[in-house]
Amino acid sequence: MARYTVTSALPYANGPIHFGHVAGAYLPADIFVRTLRMKGEEVLFVCGTDEHGVAITLRAEEQGLAYDEYVARWRQEHLETFRSLGIEFDVWSGTSVCPDHTATAQGFFTELDHGGYLIRRESEQLYCTHDEKFLADRYVMGTCYVCGHEQARGDECPSCGTWIQPLKLGSPRCKICSNEPERRKTTHWYLDLPKLRDEYIGEWIEDHQWKPNVSAFIKNMLADVPERAITRDMDWGVPLPEGVEGREGKVLYVWFDAPIGYISFTKELMARRGEGPDAWEKWWKGDTRLVHFIGKDNIPFHCMVFPAMLYGTHQDYVLPWAVPANEFYNLEEGKFSTSEGRTIDPKTFFETYDRESVRWYITTTLPETADAEFSLSGLVTTHNADLAGNIGNLVSRVLKFIAKNYDGRVPDLFEEHRAEMDAEILEHCGLIADPAEAVLAFQFRSAARIVTANASVANLFMQRLEPWSLRKTDPERAASALNTLCQYLGWLARWMAPFLPEKAGQLWAMLGMQDEVTGRAWPGLPQAADWRFLEPGHRLGTPAALFPRLEAPPE
RNA sequence: GGCGGUGUAGCUCAGUCGGUUAGAGCACAGGCUUCAUAAGCCUGGUGUCACUGGUUCGAGUCCAGUCACCGCUACCA
């Protein structure tokens, strides 16, 4: 038994979730968690929205909404998207509403400060007297000092690609009101990442086993670690702790407070469960395995910055045990992009396509080692090949045959056939593997292939035994063969459960089982000695097409 | 500009420590079967492993360079 705290990257409450996000951080995490649960491990699955930051305030203002209303809308919409995919977190919260978040985030600030990891520094920034705020780079426009382009943004010139320092822009303007901003001095706190690296985190990163795609990325990063500002001049966010000099008008920078949400959401859940004020600690301290599911854009934060924060508090937090970062998932030759409208809206999408098919297709194409691609035609062919042709048809051919000829009851197993039937299906019809082993190694594509390969074993068994012929020539052998197939379908349903929870449940019910398949223990590999669990004569459910075939998509 | 990734069969992709005739699924073709969802089973691959050069007994794999595509890039001077 081990204990796992599993997190999925907090989605930013500023736009819809698309399949790229789902493939990167949410679906694999859900499969991982479901597998661990069936294996009897203690698991907590944490997620919620990241709700602070200037991008949110500006979008909210554009739409004439209060900040809290605006983020609440996305918080709800994201949750519905996840539900529509069968992705189920233990806790779903948001950084602006979680009752424990402010204190937890402020605690990090205070503890890091006590540890000597914060640097206080004064700098000059552009301040808009009209809007009464300091302007983020992206909200300053002006003339590029390199090429003279007049519409240069405060972070980058769209004409020549130069990185812009906003203080150097010619005739700067505020993007909101077009007035000219003035220079003002302001004080910010910086996280001393070089110190944290040299003290411990650098060594920890070097020694840690990372996925290959993660490893390449962070090794280079270590050489040139910056001090990072962790505060900003604005009012939407976590205020600095009481008693900090110069805290007025400043909040924690959104990247700093967001990952702390994993911890504050844990606290919120434990409080809701009434488990006492320290119950959250077992998920963040001691021998818990912390697993962060993220897209590759989040690697620096989750492999270096957040671990450095956890360490720097000296509160005995565990550091990540694994960060199975995925690459990017593209939609038919172009990035999933909200701004360009290249997006599939899950709400309408699921009116046409079954969510389980989508889960399956995404799993079989996850960007585990390299960027990967989602296509409608791929979804349809994968559905028809793996789910309809292989698994669904297997269930159908076995259960309909039994419904028609055996009164819908598990046929008898004749003892003289037992050893032969066991050997035939468990050894001679192909290799049976345990998909959980691949899941625990974060190889989800491979795990899905194992499930279909295991189903193929039963298709081959049926082909070789030909119960439709045996029924006339040797009815007892036919019964034994079909009994064997029923047992095997029971294993298949459990193997399917983490990937296809709903369909696995339907198959489970077709086998006449009354309980939830997801509540069953993980089956592992069937052993001839004791793998048969259905009694002869057991009443089966009503067979139906688990995965109806799909027509090819238009064009 | 910096950093990272990708380039392998018609398509989507595997390929661990460099090691025999480079693999899988899909698609396609032929055959078998008829319980089943036009499903199942069997058989079928002469790929410049992007290009050039190098290291090596041996390179898809390691090194250098070139080309193409993609991603990230901090309010840090």
The largest sheet is: 4 strands, parallel
Q: Trace the largest sheet across and list its strands.
A: 3-2-1-13
Average residue pLDDT: 88
Secondary structure category: alpha/beta
The residue fraction in helices comes out at 40-55%
Radius of gyration of CA atoms, rounded to a whole number = 28 Å
Describe the global form. Answer: elongated
Low-confidence parts: 333-342
CATH superfamily of the domain at 3-115 and 255-346: HUPs
- What is the first-to-last residue Cα distance? 51 Å
What proportion of the residues form beta strands (DSSP E)?
5-15%
CATH topology assignment of the domain at 3-115 and 255-346? Rossmann fold
CATH class of the domain at 3-115 and 255-346: Alpha Beta
Short description:
With 555 residues, this protein is an alpha/beta fold.
Description:
There is one protein chain. The chain is elongated and about 95 Å long. It has 555 residues and is α/β, with parallel strands linked by helices. The longest helix is centred in the last third of the chain and has 30 residues. Helix 4 packs across helix 7. Among the domains are: 205 residues, HUPs (Rossmann fold), CATH 3.40.50; 144 residues, Isoleucyl-tRNA Synthetase, Domain 1, CATH 1.10.730.10. A hairpin with an 8-residue loop joins strand 6 and strand 7. The strands form five sheets. It has a four-stranded parallel beta sheet with strand order 3-2-1-13. Strands 5-4-9-10 form a four-stranded antiparallel beta sheet. About 2% of the residues have low confidence. The two termini are 51 Å apart. It binds one RNA strand of 77 nucleotides through strand 4, helix 6, strand 10, helix 11 and helix 14.
